[in-house]
Design goal:
Number of helices: 3
Number of strands: 5
Helix content: 40-55%
Radius of gyration: 13 Å
Shape: globular
Structural class: alpha/beta
Largest sheet: 3 strands, parallel
Strand order of the largest sheet: 1-3-5
Distance between the termini: 15 Å
Length: 95
């Protein structure tokens, strides 16, 4: 599981994506059975902009490119509203 940081704005995007990529690579290298489903937990997320949606969509793309299912949980209500506003809320559903 990948825990999102408290802040995701444009400046944090590279670091968050790097962490997610490392998480995927580590799980694959270990042959982790639980790696079939990768879950992103947004419960710590407090400050964000639309970059957080871009991060989630890119994380989903990276997971699926490696044959992994992807799920998000505990996103802040305001981020869920933002996803709905941009019309991408359906893309953030579990596979």
């Amino acid at each position: 599981m990948l825990m999102l940081p408290a802040v995701i704005t444009h400046a944090e995007v590279p670091a968050v994506l790097r962490l997610f990529r490392q998480t995927l690579e580590k799980a694959a290298a270990q042959g982790n059975v639980d790696a079939a489903m990768l879950t992103v937990d947004g419960s710590a997320l407090q400050q964000f902009d639309s970059s957080a949606l871009a991060v989630l969509l890119e994380c989903q793309r990276m997971a699926r490119a490696r044959g992994r299912a992807f799920a998000v949980q505990s996103l802040p209500p305001k981020l869920t509203e933002l996803a709905r506003l941009y019309g991408v809320d359906g893309l953030l559903q579990s596979a």
